[in-house]
Amino acid sequence: LIPYSEITDNDVLSGRGKRSYESKGSIKFRDEVAKLLPNYLTSKDEDKRHLAAELVAKIRSADPPGRFLKPTSDGMYKEIGDKSAWEKAMMALRRIGPAVRKELEGTEQSSLLNDGSRKRGQADIAGAVEEQPSRQLSIADIAERCLEVMAQKKSESSTSDADAGAATATTATGAADADAGQGKRRQVPWGQRYKELLEFKQKCGHTEVPQIYPPNPSLGRWVQKQRCECKKRMDGKKSFLNDKKLRLLQSIEFIWKKGEL
Hints:
This protein has 261 residues and is mainly α. It has helices at residues 18-21, 24-41, 45-60, 82-104, 122-130, 139-154, 157-181, 190-204, 217-234, 243-251, and strands at 12-13, 68-71, 77-79.
């Protein structure tokens, strides 16, 4: 248990009341939510889950590391764990998202939030929000910045749609090839396995999933696969374990060498 006197400026507090809502860590958390929101509004469901995981990882990787804490009945605080922290991040993004969409309703550019190229301009939109990280951004602030970027991107929509169509075709071909190589085994998204690993850590207190793990046999194989891909990366070979995935795994103290627990 953690006394209130040991809470740092990077700790995110759950619970009702002014103390939790106005803590420096909670304000920073809401700032990060505001900066991610434009990307969230233009992302598919799987990418939205990734954004929430990235948000948790960013808080955890602060100096000193941020914790997600909730009050106990005796006035102390305790860590809620990675799974609950991820759920808190998802809830925060979901809660503000509809308000921003409502703010955008009736505008000519709002249709871009739901078109076939939903990722168009994500980096630019996030950059526009990033310009003012020092204050709490209102719903109108975020909506205004979304509109600025979407208006600029609208003139490029024809080209972007063509590129998106080509990318979709390429992705579909790649998926078909993967299915053929795997005996048409269903491909589970990386983010889904990551969420399952968070649940395992919440339950067991570590990330060393046995390679033979009856409750979820695929998770044990997936964990071993991450180790193999990390070794490829260290050896300078081609690996699907990119920087973002590596940071997410490191943020939950992933055990890279079997038996190091």
